[in-house]
């Protein structure tokens, strides 16, 4: 067991979380100014304050605006909203004004007050779309987190990207490595230990039921799902040698894709038609990232040529983002972005320990784990805007995350 968990140091991170605050670096060029006006009449001051803060943070993270607080200051836009409560539901009306002219007037309803962060995210996402600004479709997507709850026990929780909302979905035992199974975010996969046997499960959020997919000695982890949701890339180690396997859900066929005497883990589909995979391997004597055709069991090619520990990877179309340990800088890991169609590599973080990157659904943002001394935070990189936002965490020990 100890050997198997050592393997996962290739792509695991740990976090702590607290009430969401926000920090931005690399602020860039001037943006249109926007003022937020809260016309809500709520008898819950904590909810009122938290909702306002999330709206402001969302507008900042969108990287489309400069949020100003002084009503006397000239602004390009006004984000005016009214939040009301009706038993266990919330109603939200949002008006967007420019130069005194109403550009948008939208109403939203949410059943389940505890999910109010998603109501805020959805309203900002829709407002940005109405104004024809660069989209932020990822903003109201849910994040899956595996966190330690006690010794040899961990939970699977669902959260919003600010970690304001958190809901425990699976509890009891050791539950690890959640991975979304479809674009609608109604299905996810995770690994649990069934009578000390690593077992891959498929959880349906609509029915709140988990179904067993397969078991394997050593380890079994679903690291990626094809764009059509029909195929899984799985890391298994039936003989204590982790390799990448393809599992086809329709016919339950398993195909071994790598066959190396060392460590191959963290397989990800890459390319518009999912015809290739990238994965982390120690075949150079240290963790690095390799590329291989899906229909081949050999011919793996090195794709990253700098760094001595490139330990986690995520993909979007022909792009990949990975964490890399900096040479001669103990404990410093940075996030890098590259394309299979170019030799250019873009460094996205500057210092410290930045691990476990994950692309957003549109490829325009990257979430990762940031260590800040004894503390840590969830980082969100807005790639095109060249901005990074940090949300400090205080929710227990995080083992893995998926967006």
Describe the structure.
The chain has 403 residues and is mainly β. It has 2 domains: 2-19 and 138-402, Neuraminidase (6 Propeller); 30-130, ABC-type transport auxiliary lipoprotein component (Rossmann fold, 3-Layer(aba) Sandwich). Helices cover 9% and strands 48% of the residues. It is built from 3 helices and 30 strands. Helix 2 (45-61) packs parallel to helix 3 (116-130).
What's this entry about, in short?
With 403 residues, this protein is mainly beta.
Keywords:
single chain, 403 residues, mainly beta, Neuraminidase, Rossmann fold, 2 domains, five-stranded antiparallel β-sheet, five-stranded mixed β-sheet, 3 helices, 48% strand, disordered N terminus
